[in-house]
Design goal:
310 residues; mainly alpha; four-stranded mixed beta sheet; 15 helices
Length: 310
């Protein structure tokens, strides 16, 4: 893999999408949300989700599948995250991933992602989930992923709280859920540090059959994505909120690509990388893979294990 810049001083506000922040503000202002979150925690939903994820899926460690686990470790280092989440593999032919846990983090990726994405594209996928974690999205995304279960918990209450999971909360929650994907894509790009890699990952996530991989170029996908850049912000926002009201499962992959391209073209992506590169001290020997400072006697990088070039 090519050398990447380590973003040790990266703050979430540097890459978070404004639609994400606006939608989160709306969500947190929605009446009844605080009580809903409390009931979710009181009923042990997070513990249930951890049991479900760890009981249904195969854990991946440095001992079992080191090449996959090392990609997650590398993604954490690039984003300046010292705590490595537990990694699990779920049997599913689609390309998907999610993160969970407030105290003990975990990341789950599908077998389809491992089969269909190359290592660099997997870095993009891992970076997306780490972006959710770094931006403290996990609790609300757990709620969004568990709406059916939470609805059942709420309906079983007998203290007049049966209507707490109202349509306004559902709409605000699912709208923010989609907006948070824009932020995650930016974090994924900052992790793989290649617009070509990020775009090819999104093309595959959009559903391109494996036998046609490589047939849709980045430029062709960009042309399709650019058609959404002409939408006015108000129109765009209303459309996504309308779709959220139906809990639409579609990930809007092409729209997400459009937002990622606009962020790159605005220069913010390059600014973050250049700022991090400028902060690196000169004169130190560094690992070509993770930029860890090397001692003269190092044969292998103590951080990532890459052989030191002579």
């Amino acid at each position: 893999m090519s050398q990447r810049i380590i973003l040790n001083q990266l703050f979430p506000t540097e890459y978070e999408h404004p639609f994400d922040r606006q939608a989160l503000d709306r969500l947190e202002d929605t009446r009844g949300l605080d009580l809903l979150i409390q009931k979710m925690l009181d009923n042990g939903l997070e513990a249930y989700l951890r049991i479900k994820h760890t009981g249904d899926n195969l854990q991946v460690t440095a001992r079992t599948i080191p090449e996959l686990h090392s990609l997650l470790v590398e993604a954490c280092k690039i984003l300046g995250m010292s705590d490595i989440p537990d990694l699990y593999l779920r049997l599913d032919d689609s390309i998907d991933s999610f993160s969970s846990g407030q105290k003990r983090r975990l990341v789950v990726i599908t077998t389809g992602a491992v089969e269909l994405l190359n290592d660099e594209e997997l870095l993009f996928l891992f970076g997306r989930e780490l972006g959710h974690i770094k931006s403290n999205h996990v609790l609300y995304r757990e709620l969004g992923d568990s709406l059916t279960l939470v609805s059942q918990i709420v309906s079983d209450l007998t203290l007049g709280l049966g209507n707490i999971l109202s349509m306004p909360i559902k709409i605000a929650l699912m709208h923010w859920y989609r907006m948070s994907e824009f932020t995650a894509d930016r974090a994924g790009l900052l992790t793989c540090q290649s617009t070509e890699t990020a775009t090819q990952a999104l093309i595959k996530m959009a559903g391109l059959p494996q036998k046609y991989h490589g047939r849709i170029t980045t430029e062709e996908f960009r042309r399709q994505a650019n058609s959404f850049s002409e939408l006015e912000v108000k129109t765009f926002d209303k459309f996504l909120r309308f779709m959220a009201s139906y809990e639409n499962p579609q990930p809007f992959t092409v729209i997400r690509a459009s937002q990622m391209f606009q962020w790159v073209e605005a220069g913010e992506y390059t600014r973050i990388l250049n700022s991090a590169a400028a902060s690196l001290p000169e004169g130190d020997a560094r690992c070509r893979a993770c930029l860890h400072v090397l001692d003269p006697e190092d044969v292998f990088c103590p951080a990532c294990g890459t052989k030191v070039e002579g």
